[in-house]
Every structure is written in C-alpha cells, then in structure tokens.
Design brief:
By secondary structure, this protein is mainly alpha-helical. The protein is built from four helices and two strands; from the N terminus they run αααββα. 60% of the residues lie in helices and 6% in strands. α2 packs antiparallel against α3.
C-alpha cells in the first residue's frame, strides 16, 4: 500500500476505531477475545485487498476488511498500553508514554 493510501486509511481509522471502542465498551472480555479471533481470517486474507482497485478482483469487500481492522484495533485498545498501528494510537486508559496524552498535554501548554 502506498504512503498516500496508508494516510487515508489512518484518517478513516481515527474515526472508526473510537466508534468501535464505544460500541464494545460494555462487552465482556470473552466477547472481545472472540471478536479478535473472528477477525484473524478476514484480516489475514483480506488486508492486502484494500489496495486492489478493481472490485471484481477482491474476494472480500473493502468496507468489510476496513471495518474488521477498526474493530480489531478497538479490541486491542483495551489491552494495557493500548495499540499503535500505522502511526495511530488508541487506548482506553492512561498509561506511561501514551502518545495521545503527550499530544493533549502539548496542545494545552
């Protein structure tokens, strides 16, 4: 995937991941683990298809793969230290070295 496409995907994730975090906030941990396990096949077989221009050559719809990545990042955001992917960082609790907390502190300084 080109840097431009990665940047566009990250912009989308900046919206989709927080929405997914809110959506799964009340889920028991077992349900989050099950969602992560279910995502493995979609991501492993479909992530490279996000870059495919011809929809007829894609085995999975681009939106399904993108939504699955966002849901997986949301699940990982609940882990200690959150998750960093493609330059983005998502977490659900303050932690040492958090890039979001550092950015928020710098913005208010």
């Amino acid at each position: 995937m080109t840097d431009d496409r990665t940047a566009l995907l990250l912009i989308g994730m900046e919206v989709m991941v927080p929405m997914s975090i809110a959506e799964i906030a009340d889920w028991p941990e077992e349900d989050r683990h099950a969602a992560a396990a279910a995502a493995v096949d979609v991501i492993s077989s479909g992530a490279d298809q996000i870059a495919e221009h011809n929809p007829r050559k894609r085995e999975l719809p681009r939106g399904r793969v993108t939504a699955t990545i966002a849901r997986s990042l949301a699940v990982l955001a609940y882990q200690p230290g959150g998750v960093t992917w493609a330059g983005g960082h998502w977490c659900t609790a303050p932690h040492e070295g958090c890039p979001r907390r550092r950015a928020a502190t710098e913005a208010t300084a």
